[in-house]
Amino acid sequence: MLNRYPLWKYLLILVVLLFGLIYSLPNLFPADPAIQVSSAQGDALDEREVSRVQQALADNGIEVKGADLENGLWLIRLENNDDQLNARDIAAETLGPDATVALNLADATPGWLQAFSASPMTLGLDLRGGVHFLLEVDMDAAITQRLEVNASAMRELLRGERIRYRNTEIDGQTLSIDFANSEDRDAARRLISRDFPDFDYQSSGGGRSASLDMTLSDQIVSEIQDYAVNQNLTTLRNRVNELGVAEPMVQRQGPSQIVVELPGIQDTVAAKRIVGATANLEFRLEARGDTPDQETESFAFRNGSGRSADLMRDVIITGDSVSSASNSFDENGRPQVNINLDGTGGTLMNRATRTNIGRNMAVLFIEHKSEDTVVTDPETGEETIVREPYTERGLISLATIQSALGNSFRITGLDSPTEAAELALLLRSGSLAAPIYFVQERTIGPSLGAENIQRGLLSVQIGLLLVVLFMLARYKVFGIFANIALGLNLTLLVAVMSMLGATLTLPGIAGIVLTLGMAVDANVLIFERIREELRNGLSIQQALHAGYERAFTSIVDANITTLLVAVILFSIGSGPVKGFAVTLSIGILTSMFTALMVTRAMVNLTYGRRPAKKLWI
């Protein structure tokens, strides 16, 4: 028969539509505004403390939906978005300084939908809110770190040429090395200046006071600082991608600042811990008993055991050599981090361990932090905040080298699975080229997002209503088929975006409105073709068949060209343009399915099973 589908096609359409219904439904259950409470150390609070917070909120007229313990953190759900900021302040005052209170959003998807792994669409910063950070790159620390790397390489070079030196010291942009006599200093200058052309060299003193001063030129300093900002940009983007944040923004602002915006993230505590972490690793050999004091440094273990160890000042490799890292558990159930090194790092590790079997190697954890101190001017009484940077160094592990190591090995001695997961994340995303400090942080509330969502939904509703009325007036019964397909198209579009984790922004809503208008184009082409075939004298069944078959090529051609434009927009555009391109691309694909298959199925079920005397088209 001309206008009949086989059973499998009807079943396929039914399965696709059922799939669309299930995965679009979570969007009817928006996340609840909530406050997240935990101890200052990040542990879960006692239930009595949570009950005390709930009672305090109730006493202040704030309605509470309930409290849930998720991933070791308590989420107190609220009824109203407007109460969120006030609830945070009340909870912080109730719990005191020993607890941490942050804004968050609690998933409200019913359990039976979660069983299908169904979740609502991700909303962008303009719709859902999120966090905004302004970060400052420590330019002085970038220079110091570069000088420390150069100093380590110079010491290794001098030892290889058996040139004696006594001490290395860094002061600002200058690296100084002391020697026992002028002959050793002059020989060192000839050797070092050949491999390190970025310095201005100056010899000073003589005899046992001979020293070589090496100062970075202004051009090199500028290059180091510019590299530090660009490298930090790359590292921060990698960290944000690891967090799974959709449509984030990480961009440079001015010579030394970076702006980070994370849509949908309201837990500033967790975001700061990952984004602002300046941790890195150093792998060093434990010092021998006869090693001179100027070539060793002493460090304590981070686990608070009180133990310490003397390490060589020279670094085998740093976390920069890590190509991949993952967290797991060892044979005793303790957390560990599995590390793979790049080619250079693997070579250096193999060279160092091959000649030191039986010797201890330490993993040193380094973290740059800062402390803000309020300083009052004694004359004016004006208060200013002074940031004092400092560095914490501690040993993670100290293990005996049993055999030569290569590109893969593991780190043990970590306190918790959380610490292992965060360390693996930081190593995967790369270490920062220089420490960064938070200059400004703020949570972007949902009030603007709620208004944007309301207006966006209104625009979709108006556009949908106008299209529905036009199709009914123009094509009567066939207009009903097109309108049903239009509604199903919108359902499938939302379902696919939800499944892919695509981010909906205001430009994305504009893409949906445009898709609704374009979705009926295919039906218009088909219906007009059916009218034309009827005017040419074909029977009703023949006209229906010819209308769908002969309009197919035109529909595909028109939609492919639009899809190509959307792909180009996505590939070269920025955040808002990408959001528009995503919704447009998905909408084109779903509209082709509903226009060509769903409406054809409805036409076949209505007219294909019996002779028709008249078409209401």
From TrEMBL:
Belongs to the SecD/SecF family. SecD subfamily. Residues 439-603 form the Protein export membrane protein SecD/SecF C-terminal domain. The lineage of its organism: Bacteria, Pseudomonadati, Pseudomonadota, Gammaproteobacteria, Oceanospirillales. Keywords: Cell membrane, Membrane, Protein transport, Translocation, Transmembrane, Transmembrane helix, Transport. It is found in: Cell membrane. Residues 2-103 form the SecD export protein N-terminal TM domain. The gene is secD. The chain crosses the membrane at residues 456-473, 480-502, 508-530, 551-573, 579-603. It comes from the Bacteria. Part of the Sec protein translocase complex. Interacts with the SecYEG preprotein conducting channel. SecDF uses the proton motive force (PMF) to complete protein translocation after the ATP-dependent function of SecA. Forms a complex with SecF. Part of the essential Sec protein translocation apparatus which comprises SecA, SecYEG and auxiliary proteins SecDF-YajC and YidC. Pfam families: Sec_GG, SecD-TM1, SecD_1st, SecD_SecF_C, SecDF_P1_head. This is Protein translocase subunit SecD. InterPro entries: SecD, SecD-TM, SecD/SecF_arch_bac, SecD/SecF_CS, SecD_1st, SecD_SecF_C, SecD_SecF_C_bact, SecDF_P1_head. Residues 301-434 form the SecDF P1 head subdomain domain. Residues 229-286 form the Protein translocase subunit SecDF P1 domain. It is a multi-pass membrane protein.
